[in-house]
């Protein structure tokens, strides 16, 4: 099976950072940088015109910031993975980003290898939120989520779905979950589709937070 290239867009208002990211990512044969833009508005426009799999999104940009751009892109192209790039742990942004379906969150001082692994992981459908931030985000998530929305939802989950959800909350990939439960990756994907629908979430990160909130797993 041929290796599918990951079409990646870099959105950052600093030319130097864009150049640095392009150089780092050119090392990985599976990643193809298809464009660079300097603000959120241009990122949204680019995604309308070209085929993009993943956007590396700076948070603080002129005209339209990364959060607004994330929301706009996800509304039209839910399949595009978005990885936020930020200078420091901006918790208040992270919650907003999770709400809008972000797939990953990395600091700008991330090791190049880790950045590449995050991109490859998001392309496989995984989520990357630093564990150190999960507890803080969860507190915010619990505070803002209406209890009615979640009330008794997990009663509708089967035992197997709860098992899958526990593994998701521990940050395991579909491949690792399949191996642990002795089922195929396709079955894991089917379970995840059902779980997302039943508990009313759109991605793995929200599902993981739900699992922690419902005490299926302990932090």
Automatic annotation (TrEMBL):
Query: Among the record's GO biological process terms, what is one?
Result: phosphorelay signal transduction system
PROSITE patterns membership: HTH_LUXR_1, HTH_LUXR_2, RESPONSE_REGULATORY
Record carries keyword Transcription: yes
Residues bearing PTM 4-aspartylphosphate: 58
Which regions span the lipid bilayer? none
**Taxonomic superkingdom:** Bacteria
Quick check: keyword Transcription regulation in the entry? Answer: yes
Where, if anywhere, are coiled coils annotated? none
CDD domains in UniProt: LuxR_C_like, REC_NarL-like
Q: Where is the HTH luxR-type domain?
A: 150-215
A Pfam family annotated for this UniProt entry: GerE
Q: Which InterPro entries match?
A: CheY-like_superfamily, NreC/VraR/RcsB-like_REC, Sig_transdc_resp-reg_C-effctor, Sig_transdc_resp-reg_receiver, Tscrpt_reg_LuxR_C, WalR-like
Q: Which UniProt keywords apply?
A: DNA-binding, Phosphoprotein, Transcription, Transcription regulation
Q: Which SMART domains match?
A: HTH_LUXR, REC
Q: Which residues form the Response regulatory domain?
A: 7-123
Molecular function terms in GO for this entry? Answer: DNA binding
What function does this protein fulfil?
May play the central regulatory role in sporulation. It may be an element of the effector pathway responsible for the activation of sporulation genes in response to nutritional stress. Spo0A may act in concert with spo0H (a sigma factor) to control the expression of some genes that are critical to the sporulation process.
Q: What is this protein called?
A: Stage 0 sporulation protein A homolog
UniProt lineage = Bacteria, Bacillati, Bacillota, Clostridia, Eubacteriales
């Amino acid at each position: 099976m041929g290796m599918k290239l990951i079409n990646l867009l870099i959105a950052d208002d600093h030319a130097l950072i864009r150049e640095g990211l392009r150089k780092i990512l050119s090392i990985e044969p599976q990643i193809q940088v298809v464009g660079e833009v300097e603000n959120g508005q241009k990122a949204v426009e680019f995604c309308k015109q070209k085929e993009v799999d993943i956007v590396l999104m700076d948070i603080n940009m002129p005209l339209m910031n990364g959060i607004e751009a994330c929301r706009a892109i996800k509304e039209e192209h839910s399949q595009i993975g978005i990885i936020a790039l930020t200078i420091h742990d901006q918790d208040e942004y992270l919650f907003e980003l999770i709400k809008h379906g972000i797939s990953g969150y990395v600091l700008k001082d991330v090791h190049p290898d880790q950045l590449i692994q995050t991109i490859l992981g998001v392309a496989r459908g995984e989520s990357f939120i630093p564990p150190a931030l999960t507890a803080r985000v969860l507190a915010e998530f619990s505070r803002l989520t209406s209890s009615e929305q979640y009330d008794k939802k997990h009663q509708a989950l089967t035992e197997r779905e709860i098992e899958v959800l526990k593994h998701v909350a521990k940050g395991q990939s579909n491949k690792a979950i399949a191996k642990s439960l002795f089922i195929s990756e396709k079955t894991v994907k089917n379970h995840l589709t059902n779980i997302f629908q039943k508990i009313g979430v759109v991605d793995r990160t929200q599902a993981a937070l739900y699992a922690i909130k419902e005490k299926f797993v302990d932090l």
